[in-house]
Every structure is written in C-alpha cells, then in structure tokens.
C-alpha cells in the first residue's frame, strides 16, 4: 500500500483491504528482489509453493498485516514488514482502480485476538 492524498479514499491504516483476499494462498508472489529484501524473515512471512514464493496468508489476509485489537483505534491495520514489503505492495496505489476493487470486496479484518501464531 502507498499513501497518496485523496479525500474519497480511507487512510490505509484504517483499511487494509488490499492486504486481504478470499483465501488465495498465491495472492502476492515474491520475486528475487523481494526475497532478497526480506532476508532472514522470508520463511516467516512467506511460503514456497511449487518452487514459487508467496506472501503467507492467514484467515484470508496477509500474515504480516497487523490488525488492532481495538477497532476504535485510529490505526486499525498496518504492515508489519513495511520497510521490506515486496514490490507489489510498494506499487499498489491508494486511490487507484485496484484499490477501489480491493475495498469493494470488503473482506472483514481478522482481529489479533482471534488469531494464533500471529507475528
Ligand atoms: S485498499 Fe487502498 S486504501 Fe485500503 S489499504 Fe489498500 S491502498 Fe490503502
Ligand atoms: S506485506 Fe504489508 S502491504 Fe503487503 S500485503 Fe502484507 S501487510 Fe499488506
């Protein structure tokens, strides 16, 4: 997710929709540059499927998405690997058509308290 000014679009920290999907384990593929950037964290935040690497998904959302237990918090969702997130996430523009489509799917965020094994 990339934050750019747009009054009609929620702040990414109150959304997280593009970090969620409908339980597709191959939602975001990691390329060599992504894997190198992740370094030792790779095996924690990603999985290898048939010789390809993907961000690890849990309950329909990226396992690296940190969701606040308190839904009234101003920061509801944030990327736990922001500095080393993959290129696909860096390129995803807030306010874009893809952002609009992601928000239209409306996958409920899974709260930390309902999760186990969360980073
Ligand atoms: S769907 Fe759009 S507004 Fe929501 S987190 Fe992603 S980029 Fe930000
Ligand atoms: S790496 Fe970060 S920005 Fe990318 S899908 Fe996961 S939580 Fe979202």
Description:
- This protein has 119 residues and is an alpha+beta fold.
- The protein has one domain.
- It is 21% helix and 17% strand.
- It has four helices and seven strands.
- It has a three-stranded antiparallel beta sheet with strand order 1-3-2.
- A hairpin with a 2-residue loop joins strand 2 and strand 3.
- It is globular, with a radius of gyration of 14 Å.
Key words describing this protein structure:
3-stranded antiparallel β-sheet; disordered C terminus; 17% strand; 119 residues; binds iron/sulfur cluster; alpha+beta; two-stranded antiparallel sheet; single chain
Chain-wise SSE layout:
Elements: E1 29-30, H1 32-38, H2 42-45, E2 46-49, E3 52-55, E4 57-58, E5 61-62, E6 65-67, E7 77-79, H3 87-91, H4 97-105
Antiparallel strand pairs: 1-3, 2-3, 4-5, 6-7
The protein binds iron/sulfur cluster (2 copies).
**Radius of gyration from CA coordinates:** 14 Å
Fraction of residues in helices?
A: 10-25%
Number of helices: 4
Q: Looking at the structure, what is the overall shape?
A: globular
Give the ligands present: iron/sulfur cluster
- What are the low-pLDDT stretches, counting only 5+ consecutive residues below 50? 113-119
In spatial order, strands of the major sheet run 1-3-2
Largest sheet: 3 strands, antiparallel
The number of distinct structural domains comes to: 1
Q: How many beta-strand elements?
A: 7
Helix-strand topology string: EHHEEEEEEHH
